[in-house]
Design goal:
Length: about 325
């Protein structure tokens, strides 16, 4: 637990009734003034981790310090030091945008001209000033999400938790919010902990990230560090029919089969494709498509878990881990 860490968590374990083990020893070290990505599919334990760090639930075991305060012994100090934006909108649709911000400020003890100035500053910053006097139910989803983030910032927190902040947004609104998140961390020194199941989001925004799989941290580092660990190119073949076992192919390694999708790694994708096609033909398999790409975070996840990222949602567990 050092002074340059905004969040330091050690061996967080969380059990729920019915012997559901949501976290199995998660440790995090989040440097001050960075965007830190907590990456994993639904059911991985991301939201449980955030709930512990924001004092909404207690860990079964383990310790955590946020903004210099122990989450178990100093929960009120933690709450005053953080802002939270969760997956579901926290805005009042029957109030105006300005009224939402003023109410949020009142909850944190802000009053008078100081609060009005802060609300005006945030409305302008997020491009919401022109709509500030309208009822929020008339706003677009992207505008409402920006207001959510602004409400999380009204009291000048030192750590901002963003739990799946762009879920449900269209690509333009998502990109717009990405740009604002980057400005917050790099322009103001705010620490942002971002949970997401969008690989592109984590790759683009996070200075550092961890990948969580079924309650454990399976990989940690910068996106480039994690991708650089993977030698060669990623090969993805969509087959016409699903084989019972992965075929033996020349020049490939780390072969996994998910239904009709075969994934593997090759040293030189362009050179490997003709031999792979010949191997598939010899095995009596017909490829529908073949894709070669440089390593991605999806490949990193596949390497550490043996499963494709998008195929690893576990709805039953996700309900318990939230």
């Amino acid at each position: 637990m050092t002074a340059d860490l905004a969040i330091a968590a050690s061996d967080l374990v969380k059990h729920y009734p019915g012997d559901v083990r949501a976290l199995r020893g998660v440790s995090l070290a989040v440097p001050t003034g960075t965007v830190f990505g907590l990456l994993g599919p639904n059911g991985a334990g991301k939201s449980t981790t955030v709930k512990i760090l924001t004092t909404l639930t207690k860990a079964t075991s383990g310790t955590a310090v946020v903004a210099g305060h122990d989450v178990d012994r100093q929960p009120d100090a933690v709450r005053r030091s953080i802002g939270c934006v969760f997956q579901k909108h926290a805005v009042d649709p029957e109030a105006t945008g300005r009224e939402n911000l003023l109410l949020q400020g009142h909850l944190y003890g802000l009053r008078g001209g100081t609060l009005r100035a802060r609300a005006a500053e945030l409305l302008d910053r997020f491009g919401l000033a022109d709509a500030a006097g309208r009822l929020v139910r008339t706003w677009s989803g992207g505008m409402q999400r920006k207001l959510d983030v602004a409400m999380g910032l009204v009291h000048h927190p030192s750590v901002l938790f963003l739990d799946e902040p762009t879920t449900g947004l269209d690509p333009e609104a998502r990109a717009d919010l990405w740009a604002e998140i980057a400005r917050l961390a790099r322009g103001e020194g705010l620490t942002v902990l971002l949970t997401t199941h969008y690989l592109e989001e984590a790759d683009r925004l996070a200075d550092q990230l961890v990948i969580v799989d079924r309650g454990r941290v399976v990989a940690a580092g910068t996106a480039e560090q994690l991708k650089s660990e993977l030698r060669g190119d990623a090969l993805v073949v969509e087959l016409g029919t699903a084989p019972a076992v992965p075929p033996v192919l020349p020049g490939v390694r780390e072969v996994t089969l998910d239904g009709r999708t075969l994934r593997a790694r090759v040293d030189d994708g362009a050179r490997a494709v003709p031999a792979v096609l010949a191997g598939l033909e010899a095995a009596g398999l017909v490829p529908a498509s073949v894709t070669v790409a440089r390593p991605s975070l999806d490949d990193v996840y596949l390497r550490h878990t043996g499963r494709a990222f998008t195929a690893d949602a576990t709805p039953e567990l996700e309900g318990a881990t939230r």
